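Researcher: I'd like a structural prediction for the single chain below. Treat it as a standalone chain; there are no partners to consider.
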Amino acid sequence: QVQLVESGGGLVQPGGSLRLSCASSASTFNDYAIGWFRQAPGKKREAVACINSYRGTTLYADSVKGRFTASRDNAKNTAYLHMNGLQPEDTAVYSCAATYYGCYDGFADVEFSDWGQGTQVTVFS
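Model: Treating it as a single chain, here is the predicted structure.
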């Protein structure tokens, strides 16, 4: 298991940017792919982005492609989600999660074993 702690959510105006962080103290953090998910009120949890472990290859949902970037700093046991061009429809609770099995096309929350607590992102005008 790998425990994850998120930070970086907040309030932002449309067009603004935020960076979410997902940190772990686990020595095995670097063995895990990290996924980012979001859930808006009354909606199902949506896969947003995923970054593989050592090679750092990434996958994105079409809704965020070109605006969001997933990255990781394995030396700091931390993954990041850089969000640019935020819009009101991006408002949600964002969570990071870990999977030992890597990111693949169509990745889904059921594939991830360990989850952060979630952080609120609100985009308002």
